[in-house]
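Why does residue order matter? Because the sequence determines the fold. Keep that principle in mind as you read this record.
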Amino acid sequence: MTTDASVTAARRPGEQALAALGLGAPALDPADASAHTFPGGGKWRTEIPSCEGPEALAVVLKESSRLDVPIHRISQGSGVWMLTDAEITEMVEATKERDIELCLFTGPRGTWDIGGSVRSDSRGAGLRARGHDAVAGCVEDAVRATELGVKCLLVADEGVLWTLHRARQAGIVPADTTLKVSALVGPVNPASYSVFEHLGADSVNVPSDLTLDHLTEIRRVSGAPMDMYIEAPDDLGGYIRMYEVAELIRRGAPVYLKFGLSKAPGIYPWGNHLRDVTLATAKERVRRGRLALDLLARHGADGDMAPLGSRLPGELRRFPVEGSA
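Structure:
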């Protein structure tokens, strides 16, 4: 199967030079491309993760203006419970001013629990919420955060996801609250990806070691927005896939391009004792974003960005909620 040569050259690093040397790659297969987009148009949005509090947020916003890095979403990883009401309000107001979606992590998770299985070689239940009280803590975080104006919540447990989806159906949290599945529990096959969509996910973070073919397989069964680290933190593998960014968009759209950082210390749960590294890494994540966007531009593949300020996922498939209309 063939495709337009200019498109092939534009989306592959070094392709024109390699073709001149007789080393050109096979033509792209149009059947591999995702047929999905964000509502309102666009195939990709951007996200700056691990923005742990108002000071780090201020650094990200200043650096994004300086480097002209467009941002659709900013996410935090330590959790709602690690921020005061005043800090959350400051972050809500700052992101609202720039029309950026703010996403905060909900509640207790396995790595901070007293359960020992997560520290075993098999990692046990992983990041999931153990027991009723952990689920309740996540729900409390969700209610508190949304009452303060947060519109996106990060979850790392299927039961919490379904519970919060039911909560927005019931009006316990606002109906336009979006639910984002963490990379810490991200699905690795089309069937599980579809399950997360049906449980209420509005965007699903997949591990950064999925192949391009894996992304195509997912897109053949689900149009739910995908989140992917273009550069992953070391505890998620430390993968750097910047040179694949155009093809990741072509295969995975609609996709959030997440600009993480390898070779950086972990900062969860965040506190002032980690201030210097938190601010330094926040600034560098924005620079990594600029590098990826520059590469897209050089390859002629920087079009199709979703409009800034857009945040909703479009029509998605859900399991029926008992008692709902």
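Confidence is low (pLDDT under 50) at residues 1-10.
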